[in-house]
Structure formats: C-alpha cells, structure tokens
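Hi Y.,

Following your request, here is the sequence exactly as I used it, all 685 residues.
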Amino acid sequence: MKQKALIWNMMCALLLSASMLGITVSGENAGNAAQNKGLLIWEFAPNCANGLEYVVLKNSANAVCLAGFVLTDGEGKVVFGDVVVPAYGQIVIANNGSKYMEYFESLPDVDLASHANVTVSGLFKLANTNDELYLYSPDGSLIDAVGYGKFREINGWKGKMLDVPEMGTIYKRKSVEDTNTADDWLCTKLGRTAMSVRAFRNVKMCAYVTPDAGLDALLEVINTAKAEILVCSYSLDSPHIVMALENASRRNVSISVLIESSPAGGIAEREMWAYATLSKFANVSFYGTPAHARFDYMHAKYMVVDRRTAVVSTENFKASSFPERGLVGTRGWGVVLEDAPVAEYLAEIFHADLKSIYGDVGSMTFTATSQMMTEACVNYTISNFTCRNSSGNVWIALAPDNALDFVLRAIGSAEKSVCIEALSMPLHWGTSMSPFVDAIAELGAQGVDVRVLLDGSMENAKVNRETIEYLNAQGLQNVHAKIVDNREHGFRMTHTKGIIIDERYVYLGSTNLCYNSFNENREIGVLVESGEINKYLSTVFAFDWRDDFQAPHVYIGMPSKCVAGTEVRFDASGTSDNGRIVDFLWDFDGDGNIDAKGVVVRHTYAKVGRYLVNLTVVDAEGNVNSTVREITVSACDTSATREAVSQNWIYALVPIAICVVLAVKFGKLGEKTQNAFHKIGRRVL
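Below is the corresponding structure, written out as tokens. Let me know if you'd prefer a different format.
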C-alpha cells in the first residue's frame, strides 16, 4: 500500500515538474519510452469520413531514416525516401494532405497524394472492414504488423484481429510495449482529443457545494467577466445564470455555449426557454449524436471566464442544481479555479470539442415561451455550507482521454481513507466487475477505511443498491456503503461525483462511476491537492452520511422544590428519539458546566436559592436538544411542616370523637355508667 502511494506521489510530482517545463507526460506511458528499441505502427485510421486515411509511425529510440523502408497493406506499397523519424518522435503518412489539414489543422509529414519522398505502387488503401498493415526494413525484415476485421493468420500477429472499425474509428497503441496482439491496441474515434493529464501548481481556488452556495459562487464569476465566457454543460435552464450571461453580453462580453442535444428524457420546456433566450445574445452550439460522433454525450460541466478563471462542476447549470440560497436542490460539488494556465487549457478543450468539421456539432432552433420557466420554490434549511477558499496543486483529467487510469491510481494511493459520494456506481461494466468496486475491495483488504455514499432516487436506486449490497457482503469491517437519505437531507437527488482521498486529495467532476462516462462521453474532472478543501468536503460528506436530522424530545422528571442538604433524584427516562441516544448531559445550576451524565442521576444542593436545571440530549447522528426546569431550594420544607401539622390535628381529634361516641352509647336512656379498664386488650361494650 505504501509502495502504491509512493509511486502515485512520484507520478504527480513528475506531472507537476513537466507542466513547469511545458512538457506533456502521459501517466500511463511515462518512463516506458526506453523499453522499446525501434519503430512501431503507432496509430491508423482505416474508415474515416470523406475518404480520410492516415498512418502514424512512432520511434522510441534513436532517429531513423526511412529510406528503403516499406509500408504495405498487402495490395499497395509505399517505399520511403529520405524521411527521418526523430528520436522518440513520430511521423504521419496521409493519403490526402489537404484533407488531413482540414481535420487536424496541420500538414502530414508524408502526403501520398503528392508522392514527395515516397514511391507508391499498387492500390494502397485500407479496407473499411478487413485489412492489415506491415512495416518492413530495407532488407525485407518484418518490423511490425497489425490486422483488423475477420480472423485470419497474418505474419507477425498472434490471436484475434482488432474489431471491425465503425465510421470514424482510429486505432491507437496503448504504450510502446509490443506483444503483437490485440491487447496492445485501443479503439478511439476521429476528432477525439488524446490529451495527457495536465498538472498546475499553486492554484488559487474556492470550493462550494450545492444547493447551499453554488449559485452565489457561479454568479460572482460570471459578473466579473470583461471579455469572454465559455460555457459547456449537458443541460442548462437556470434563469439566474441566463440573466447573468445576458447582463455580461450587455458589457460587450463574448459568450459561447456548448450543450448536449440529446439529454436523457429529451430537452424540457425550461431548457427550450433558456436556449432560445441565450441564442439572442450568445453563440449557442449543440453537440449531436450521428453514428460517427466523437463522444456518446457531451457530459462535461465547466465554465471559462476571460481565460483567467475556470469553474469545474459535478452539476449541470440548471435551476434544480443551482437554486437561490435557501431553496432545495441537488447535492453537488464544484470548484472555482483562479488560474490563467488552467483556464487556457480548458478553453483549448472547449474549442477542440466545438469543431463542426466532424459533423457532430451544429445549431438548433427553439421558440422562447412568453414566461420564464422556473422550478417550484421549496425551502431548504437543513445545511448552510458556505464557500471555502484555499490554494494548492491541481490536475485536470479528461474522459475518454485519461481520466479512468488517473482516478483509479489516485484511489489506489490511499493509505488511510477513501470517501466516495456519487450519483451512480454500477456493480458491473458489461460482463466485468466495475474497476471501482474492485479498487474499493482491494483497499478494504489492505485496511483502508472506505465509505461509499450513493444516490437513492428512483432511476438510480436499483443499480446502486446492488453495488451496496455486494460491498457490504464482502465481510470487510472497514468498508461501509449505503444510500443517501435524500428526503431527510432535503435533496432533490444526490448528483455528486466526488472522491476524498486521505486528508490530502479531492477529485470532483462530471464523470459518473460507470463505463460510458469514462470511455465514451466527454467528461472533465479535477484532482485538488489541498488540506483545506479536503477538510471542507470531508465535513460535507460526514453531513451527507447522516441519516437523521430530528432532535430528541427531552423530558425531565424532578421535584420543583427541595431542602438544602438532601439528595434530589433527576429522571430523563421519558426522553424519546427516533434513533439511538448517546449522551444525557446535566447542568444542575445553570453555569454552563456539565455536572453529571446519565439517564437517572442524583444531586444535593448545599445552599438555598433558585436553580436552573439544564438537560442536553445528543443522539447517534449528532442531533442535539435541551430543556430547562427550575428548582427552589429552601432551608427546611415548610410545605411538609404545614402538611404534618394538618395531619396531626386530624389524629388529635380521633380520640375525642371516640369519647363522644362512647358517651352517647353509655349515656343512652339517661343512665350513668362508669367502668375502668385496668388491662390492655379488647373489650366488648
């Protein structure tokens, strides 16, 4: 476990150092470059739109001149001239240089259409469904090979072929390690970025949670804009955010918005109003889903202001997620990053995703309703977390580029604790166990305390309960998983995607803990290294972990008066709670100090006077309630004396009454009778 933490810390330090020098380092491939000693077919696109095809050759050793090297698909053949692949560099060979330029905004190193520095013979054109690529040295030795489509035996390849490519498919190697099998390769899509995790030092930041303080934080950022605002969200319908953006446009701020065109359940009427209104003053684009779209969904949730401030959120920019303070909403986390390099990087991602050449970004037209659509106003008074300022190191992770491996490494580095609060965490990814479930079980077996808190709203309850039941059934005493009680907390749902690691790191972003989020959607997340932010969100997590916010009903059984120097009994057994009570705290004289603990206690007052008795009761969820009673302490019990005197008068009258009765009995008929009783006993008269 300590070794994993050490490796993780070294990797983070490497990323930070590289960022200072302007070097891009992949967390997956860092340190592997020296393991390979030659050329590899690194990437190729066999079935792209508009006839685009290309092949990338990568060199992981000394510079290599390709004069006499041959690249072939078995039908056509490319013989290279004096083309040099730099040490640890790569070259691109494209069938059409101008077409490649349209998509990648740079020219290929080798343009087969121009025949410069190459000789092309036969038909070198990769088939859409079944084909292979070979790279030969000038002496005819096979250097590398790859095949896709229907299974067949090919030289230099073992086992099954790569899958039949869909339109827009690009095959890329995972690393420079070469086993000549399909396991060496991953499949991506044309236009998807291939970014490595980017690190940033000493970033000034402000963390917030919704529904408590998210809107205030967001509006403050928007209201400071002077030149440009970029907004990316799965959906958007908040009237407050729309109006703030409109006000910014009146200050001549340029506004661009990128929205998913096919959210689950379709585009609601409130969203139609928002998009129609935004279109009047902003450039609004919609990410669509054709068969060859780059991502399944545009699910990222972030904002960039003036290339100096960025917001990364777990929540869409909706009224239900960013309500006015004091109104109910979804539970979410977010962070404002006041750092120009961070903002520049996210702006780069925004404009890369905004490109329309791939056919998956366009416009849509909506008609605004005559009246602004708003959410129902329900008061929210359970918690009131304000924003928390801090500074620290930051790592930006993207899906599908790099987030999965990076987040799993972060979790695996934990030495003491991991807390996960999430909208969704399915037990299985297809036919395999979720890597997050595996990671949690492994941490539990290593003695790391793990708590998992998942949403219980209707659409997520079944999936999340299955995961929770599995984790709790593993017999790991330090792994605990449960459903958030949204109703008790006053949440519409728990929409968070957050992970707290030890007392050091926090990861948050748009990535749900499921296969599609990490592998098919555009998602953005941020890992923050800040003890202050960690402590803040740990407090929020502990609050969300609670199941009960009802305070105990407190009752004290006690006399209202007593005599100084005598013991008084105080009884709280009539106190009730819907959970378990853990403390009964007694203050017998109102001085604020705890004088006794327990359900039934006793106390002796030494001096006369009036005293306030305070009982404070605490339940297992930390709910507290108290009540106060008054007791009067006197030198003697005057009420008891009066009662005794009253009773003695009654007893004194008893013999008199008996004598009167006897007198009547013996004096009957006027007779005078006298009798003396000399012995003790009963007599019959």
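The longest strand covers residues 198-210.

Thanks again,
Q.
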